[in-house]
Specification:
The chain is α/β, with parallel strands linked by helices. It folds into two domains: 17-90 and 252-454, Zn peptidases (Aminopeptidase), CATH 3.40.630; 93-247, Glucose Oxidase, domain 1 (3-Layer(bba) Sandwich). Helix content is 38%, strand content 24%. The strands form two sheets. The protein has an eight-stranded mixed sheet, sandwiched between helices. Helix 2 (21-36) runs antiparallel to helix 15. The two termini are 39 Å apart. Mean pLDDT is 95; it is low at 1-17. Bound molecules: zinc ion. The site of zinc ion (ZN) has 5 residues, from helix 10.
């Protein structure tokens, strides 16, 4: 260890120890309890094992709602209830395929339909492939080059960013808007190089968004290595034909639910501190990092405060949102109800960036509140929470900010590995580290404790 690092650790230790003793001691016990007892990890394991596939409208989602409601009831919250809304029901179907044939030999690619994609005819779509890197390139190539072809968005994930969420924002447009954009010029289908950071062959799904002014064409993601394979083959034979088979279905909307549990405030019952994540997950892995981790950390944060005998002044509410992945209707329904019922949320916190070692929080709201929250930083153990910066809070709590102007916080874990797993078959429980997950729970618990104690 170098000298500078030793000094930083030493000074951070003094700072951490230099805050009011009672709070410092309590926060220390939050971290110790999370690290030594099993606050979050086993619950995440059970969720992933029992309901690995939790897309809105599915049996898995309905099962997860029932099971987590029971879990909250077992923790003796003052009130546990469901919030119902009509949500979409899309299923990918089985045997998705993408392949090309060279010299009589079939080359299969690793593929997943994008969420909401329409089906291909049963025999699939077979067509020549046009490689592009951007939506602009589609515009410049025009219908004469695109009509009748499968458009292949080959652009890799923007890996140059230190924070991978910035790379994701830059790269995800081809997934959400690419299909309709190509369809306007007569494309018959779209495949994309997966929006993920790993160079393995797991395809990463995610929602596409069909524009109203374009025909709806099937669209799918290819694993990184499969995208390489297709690209290389096209370099050798630009006339090569790709076959894509998707047999997805869109069913009528289904009753769907947010799961809510709350502990009533002892002094300021009508002021709510919300903590949550989203219960729905793609049907490809187990939704462990996205967002089983956030859901179980939110439950765990209140659980650890209760275990330590803390009696909150404000009402603390854990919300497990449904339908973040393909509609955000759970978040919208929650905000709608909050507005109708004139509920006063003093802060909403979301964990939806993976169960990795926590590094900080991002904030949306007034500068004065941000500065107030930043004054808590010395309470946090060094090397877990290093910053609270302006940014966003989380997708599910966004509508609450829009309709009620609620300040938002989002837990910011280390982002380096998140997009290796995100929306792919690799997002399974074994990809979550117990200590990293529990540190996230502890950070959330410490934050809501401080906000409860000092207000905003
Ligand atoms: Zn998520």
């Amino acid at each position: 260890m170098n000298v500078v690092l030793s000094i930083i650790i030493f000074l951070s230790g003094i700072l951490y120890a230099g805050e009011p003793a009672e709070e410092t001691e309590f926060i220390r016990s939050i971290y110790q309890t999370c690290l030594t007892k099993d606050i979050t990890y086993s619950n995440l394991g059970l969720l992933c094992e029992k309901f690995p596939s939790r897309l809105t409208g599915s049996k898995g989602a309905a099962g997860a709602v029932k099971w987590t409601k029971k879990l909250l009831e077992n923790y003796n919250y003052d009130r546990v209830f469901l919030q119902e809304f009509m949500g979409p029901h899309w299923e990918r179907g089985e045997k998705e395929q993408a392949y090309f044939i060279i010299s009589g030999e079939r080359n299969d690619l690793s593929v997943l339909a994008l969420g909401r994609s329409v089906s291909t005819p049963e025999a699939g779509i077979t067509a020549k492939v046009l490689v592009v890197n951007s939506l602009d390139e589609v515009d410049s190539l025009g219908a004469e080059n695109i009509s009748g072809k499968i458009v292949f968005y080959n652009e890799p994930f923007a890996q140059s960013h230190i924070h991978t969420f910035s790379g994701y924002s830059e790269s995800v447009t081809k997934r959400s808007k690419g299909p309709s954009h190509a369809a306007r010029y007569g494309a018959v289908a779209v495949v994309i190089r997966s929006v993920g950071t790993a160079m393995d062959d797991h395809p990463h799904t995610g929602s596409l968004s069909y524009a109203e002014d374009a025909p709806q064409i099937p669209a799918a993601a290819l694993g990184y290595q499969s995208a390489d394979k297709l690209y290389d083959a096209l370099q050798k034979d630009p006339d090569l034909k790709l076959t894509l088979k998707i047999n997805s279905h869109t069913f009528p909307d289904e009753p769907s639910h947010n799961v809510i549990g709350e502990i009533s405030g002892s002094e300021k019952r009508d002021q709510i501190i919300l903590i949550g994540g989203h219960l729905d997950a793609w049907d490809t892995g187990q939704g462990a990092h996205d967002d089983g981790a956030g859901v179980m950390q939110s439950i765990g944060a209140l659980r650890v405060l209760k275990m330590l005998g803390y009696i909150p002044k404000h009402t603390m509410r854990v919300v497990l949102f449904m339908n973040e992945e393909n509609g955000l209707l759970g978040g919208k329904k929650y905000a709608e109800e909050a507005l109708i019922n004139r509920e006063n949320h003093i802060l909403a916190i979301e964990s939806d960036a993976g169960g990795f070692v926590p590094r900080g929080f991002s904030f949306k709201g007034a500068d004065s509140i941000l500065m107030h929250l930043q004054s808590y930083l010395p309470y946090f153990p060094p090397y877990t929470i290093e910053s609270i910066i302006s940014g966003g809070g989380g997708a599910d709590i966004g509508p609450l900010n829009k309709s009620c102007d609620t300040p938002l916080l989002g837990l910011v874990p280390d982002s380096q590995r998140y997009f290796d797993f995100h929306h792919s078959p690799a997002d399974v429980f074994s990809a979550v580290n117990r200590r990293e997950l529990e540190l996230g729970t502890a950070s959330l618990a410490a934050m809501i404790y401080l906000v409860d104690k000092y207000g905003l």
